[in-house]
Amino acid sequence: MMELDTTTTTIMGALATLSPPQLSDLTHTLLSLSHHHRRRISSLLSSPILFALTIRRLNSLSLHHKTLLISRHVISSLHHLALHFQPAAKAPPPRVKLRDLDAVLLLLLLCEAHQHDPDALQAPTAKWRELLGKFYCDTMLTVSGIGAQNASVLVSYVEMLTRCLRFVSAMESCSFGGKAGREVPAAKAVVVALPSVEVRSGGGGPKECVICKEEMAESRDVCEMPCRHLFHWVCILRWLSKRNTCPCCRFALPTDDVYGEIQRLWNVLDNVASEKGLV
Ligand SMILES: [Zn+2]
Ligand SMILES: [Zn+2]
């Protein structure tokens, strides 16, 4: 059952700010993702070889690597929601390899089965496929399983995200609820894709680059951040190699740092939810 903790409240708050077309867009995306995931889980549970390989892979991974797998899963899940609020920093959701997806889906299923019945996984590993198969069929027949239609697909999404975020913050002993974060460099792919614009004479007199405090000469090409702030290319490239935020307004660009990226996406949701007074 879903606990209404702050994580859940923030995600629900962000969902509540979506317009009906955005909500139906998101539901559509989540439905097709959930079908894809179900197909993968069914293949895992019906193929002894694939199942054994995936279990062996999970066993070979350290706790840190398992946390990374779950974190990447969180990032691609958060992406679907966050891009509705920040189309400016749209970066394609990270591609997940099929074997990583299988590993993370099996890991989550194992966690769920364990939570449901802590003794279930005491059985020898050879029995796990059968046990999980039974557990999976049972959950498919519950409310959030049936047909995974509109409302229930959103409920499962919120539940899954809450569970994973809680896991990641426990493992990394960090809280994504807090606004403070470590400094992380902006993602290289995003930085190279930033547009170059020509400085034009405007009403406001000469424009200054806040990094070097020097004027940006008219008709010179400078870098425009998604928040519309302008900087000398040399200055901003050096800046973004250390942090992913705009020096003027702290607008955050995507980062390749897994936990930094979760933090960034989380802040996007937290901001929209708190702006509307929903958290
Ligand atoms: Zn400068
Ligand atoms: Zn800015």
Would you kindly provide a written description of the structure presented here, covering whatever features stand out?
The structure is a single chain. This protein is mostly helical. It has 2 domains: 193 residues, no CATH class; 53 residues, Zinc/RING finger domain, C3HC4 (zinc finger) (Herpes Virus-1), CATH 3.30.40. 57% of the residues lie in helices and 5% in strands. The chain is built from 10 helices and 5 strands; from the N terminus they run ααααααααβββββαα. The strands form 2 sheets. It has a 3-stranded antiparallel β-sheet with strand order 1-4-5. The protein has a two-stranded antiparallel sheet with strand order 2-3. It is elongated and about 75 Å long. The two termini are 20 Å apart. One zinc ion (ZN) binds next to loops.
Brief descriptors of the model:
279 residues, mainly alpha, Herpes Virus-1, three-stranded antiparallel sheet, two-stranded antiparallel sheet, 10 helices, 5 strands, 57% helix, elongated, binds zinc ion, zinc, zinc ion binding, metal-binding, acyltransferase
Q: Which helices and strands, and how do they pair?
A:
Layout: H1 6-16, H2 20-46, H3 48-60, H4 63-82, H5 98-116, H6 125-140, H7 150-171, H8 188-192, E1 196-198, E2 208-209, E3 214-215, E4 221-224, E5 230-231, H9 233-240, H10 258-275
The structure holds zinc ion (2 copies).
